[in-house]
Write a structure and sequence with these properties.
Oligomer: single chain
Order of helices and strands: HEHEEHHHEHEHEHHEHEHE
Shape: globular
Radius of gyration: 19 Å
Number of helices: 11
Distance between the termini: 50 Å
Helix content: 25-40%
């Protein structure tokens, strides 16, 4: 029984261990503070993931967390949701529309439209660090190579993160020099047994063996999760807290996390 338990523990540790060999310089990541989807504010009609939200973050010297995905014509745009319902009031998916078609729809009650990732990079121009979330639904998603084609010419500091471990694996294989992070949280119960198993493995960072992340980006409210703390304390893996929405939450998150992703207040 002790032998079996020992084997299981070793296997578990093997699965969750982050990158160990040829680790990058984490000092440029630790201590960063990222404005979640830019420094947006509904009261003054500055939508999330919009050019004005990124301009405000740059002006105040905050790092920027943003989301990118592909349109039907394979343009890389900055947008969080896979559909336009919440932000544009239209029941259509980003992947079903061309970039030109997307420009017909305004973000919330503003005059802003969904920006190209390349335009955001021109705006930021290396003035603040970027935390780029790759929005990916499956291993077939091509967001990683398309994002890399744009970012390889960018001179500023940036880091990659994603929920999908196979998307991160692309970076592990093709761009090991780029610091990559596994996104996760403690999930609610899922509708099917397959999704339940997948969520369990994701929550406990078992998929780390696929992509060997450099850092773990986790819902700050679930900071006591075992695998998160093993990665942090045993393997000295940097951790990022999302999404912190008050100074009180920030004070709690800073006790366990190296990086803070915040919104709705000035940090």
């Amino acid at each position: 029984m002790l032998y079996v338990s020992g084997v299981l523990i070793v296997f578990y540790l093997y699965c969750i261990v982050p990158r160990i060999i040829h680790r990058p310089d984490y000092s440029k990541l630790k201590g960063c503070r990222f404005a979640h989807r830019g420094l947006h504010n509904k009261k003054v009609v500055v939508p999330e993931n919009s050019m004005p939200a990124f301009e405000r973050a740059v002006e105040l010297g905050y790092g920027i967390e943003l989301d990118i995905q592909l349109t039907r014509d394979n343009k890389v745009v900055v947008f969080h949701d896979f559909d336009l319902r919440r932000m544009c009031g239209v029941d259509k998916r980003v992947c079903d529309l061309t970039f030109k078609e997307l420009q017909k729809y305004l973000l919330l009650d503003s005059e802003q439209t969904i920006p190209l990732f390349s335009d955001v990079l021109k705006l930021v121009n290396g003035k603040v660090p970027l935390l780029v979330e790759l929005k990916s639904k499956s291993w077939k998603d091509l967001i990683a190579p398309y994002a890399n084609d744009i970012l390889k010419e960018y001179k500023g500091e940036y880091f990659i993160q994603c929920f999908h471990p196979l998307t991160l694996r692309w970076y592990k294989k093709h761009r090991p020099d780029v610091i990559r992070g596994q996104l996760a949280e403690s999930y609610h119960r899922q509708k099917t047994i397959i999704r339940e198993i997948g969520s369990f493995l994701q929550q406990h960072l078992i998929f780390n063996f696929v992509c060997r992340p450099d850092f773990v980006s986790y819902n700050w409210r679930h900071q006591k999760e075992l695998s998160l703390n093993v990665c942090h304390k045993v393997f000295h893996c940097p951790t990022a807290a999302w999404t912190v929405r008050s100074k009180e939450q920030k004070a709690k998150a800073e006790k366990r996390f190296d990086v803070i992703i915040f919104e709705n207040f000035y940090i």
